[in-house]
């Protein structure tokens, strides 16, 4: 990994010297597994001069970065705070003004709880060319990985993605987002699970509503825990759930394929000899 420090003056001089037009691409890195990157994302990484990346970006994804590119970690690591958002934006602006092809690599999709919108408008307002390359957001990948169709016909007619962790520490209004035919997927909800359960209970959601906790989806050590609204907090404790993890609430959360951890890689999957069946997990 090249952790090169470069001053703004140097950047401007480089820009004047090479006369190139720089840009910033907000690129979705997907949920973790590198083979879930889009082809467009891989091309952007291969042609980047500088890549600014977050904590949720797996090393296997960084392996696609142009070996000559600068890789700049701007996320949060244990014991250290993340680089302030404005500082990241200013650094990317200066890098692009210097004529560089800058990639801002974000976990999942840049526009789903990823602050991509802030970066897009800040950079655009300063005249920087900004492109957006979508990524597979964690909810979609986690559900697919475990064979949990978020809008399975006859089980759910809608799905809502919500954050369980807002800037001011409160949780958003969840009233009406879970019902017998609605699926709720909560990002960043593990640390606020107690408050989430209280709010859903208060809104009349049944204690026996199925909940799935999906941890580190698509990574080799991913886990799926089936529980209920009543048992969610105790199960998070019992299984020592770590971040990143999602909570899926609603009837589809009781579905999953039984053998996800034992399946061979996709390209070697043989034709199924018998129709597969979902396991419906009994909620106790
Ligand atoms: C700041 S949000 C970023 C979401 C990202 N932009 C996306 O589209 O997936 C981070 C949260 O996404 C969820 N998340 C991201 N990657 C995940 C994964 N591989 N497995 C489970 N949850 C994940 C977790 O809830 C985590 O706390």
Rg from Cα: 21 Å
Count of DSSP strands: 12
What's the CATH class label of the largest domain?
Alpha Beta
Shape: elongated
- CATH architecture tag of the largest domain: 2-Layer Sandwich
How big a fraction of the residues is strand? 15-25%
The low-pLDDT segments are 267-272
Give the CATH superfamily of the largest domain: Tetrapyrrole methylase, C-terminal domain
- Examine the coordinates and then state which fold CATH places here, giving the name of the CATH topology of the largest domain: Methyltransferase, Cobalt-precorrin-4 Transmethylase, Domain 2
The pLDDT mean sits at 87
* Euclidean distance between termini CA atoms: 48 Å
Notes on the structure:
The chain has 2 domains: 8-136, 3-Layer(aba) Sandwich (Cobalt-precorrin-4 Transmethylase, domain 1); 139-280, Tetrapyrrole methylase, C-terminal domain (Methyltransferase, Cobalt-precorrin-4 Transmethylase, Domain 2), CATH 3.30.950. It has 8 helices and 12 strands. Strand 2, helix 3 and strand 3 (70-73) form a beta-alpha-beta unit. With 284 residues, it is an alpha/beta fold. Strands 3-2-4-1-5 form a 5-stranded parallel beta sheet, with helices on both faces. It has a 5-stranded mixed beta sheet with strand order 6-7-10-8-9, with helices on both faces. The chain has a two-stranded antiparallel ribbon with strand order 11-12. The termini are far apart. It has helices at residues 8-18, 39-46, 59-62, 85-97, 116-125, 138-145, 193-202, 232-238, and strands at residues 23-28, 50-53, 70-73, 101-106, 130-133, 158-163, 182-187, 210-215, 223-228, 245-249, 255-256, 279-280. Bound molecules: S-adenosylmethionine. S-adenosylmethionine is lined by residues 31-32, 56, 106-109, 112-114, 137-138, 142, 187-188, 214, 216-218, 243-246.
């Amino acid at each position: 990994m090249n952790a090169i420090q470069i001053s703004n003056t140097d950047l401007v001089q480089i820009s004047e010297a090479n006369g190139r037009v720089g840009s910033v691409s907000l690129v979705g890195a997907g949920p973790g597994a590198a083979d879930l990157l889009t082809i467009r994302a891989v091309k952007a990484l291969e042609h980047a001069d500088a890549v600014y990346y977050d904590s949720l970006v797996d090393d296997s994804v960084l392996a696609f970065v142009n070996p000559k590119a600068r890789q700049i970690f701007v996320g949060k690591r244990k014991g250290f705070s993340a680089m302030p958002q404005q500082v990241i934006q200013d650094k990317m602006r200066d890098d692009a003004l210097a004529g560089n092809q800058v990639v801002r690599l974000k976990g999942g999709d840049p526009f789903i709880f990823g602050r991509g919108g802030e970066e897009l408008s800040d950079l655009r307002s300063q005249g920087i060319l900004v492109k957006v390359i979508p990524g597979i957001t964690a909810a979609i990948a986690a559900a697919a990985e475990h064979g949990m169709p978020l809008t399975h016909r006859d089980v759910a007619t809608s799905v809502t993605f919500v954050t369980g962790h807002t800037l001011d520490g409160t949780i958003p209004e969840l009233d009406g987002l879970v019902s017998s035919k609605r699926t709720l997927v909560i990002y960043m909800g593990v640390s606020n699970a107690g408050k989430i359960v209280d709010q859903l209970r208060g809104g009349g959601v049944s204690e026996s509503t199925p909940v799935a906790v999906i941890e580190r989806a698509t990574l080799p050590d991913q886990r799926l825990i089936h529980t209920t609204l009543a048992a969610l907090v105790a199960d998070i404790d019992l299984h020592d759930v770590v971040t990143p993890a999602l909570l899926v609430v609603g009837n589809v959360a009781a579905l999953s394929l039984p053998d996800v951890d034992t399946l061979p890689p996709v390209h070697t999957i043989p034709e199924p000899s018998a129709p597969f069946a979902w396991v419906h997990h009994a909620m106790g």
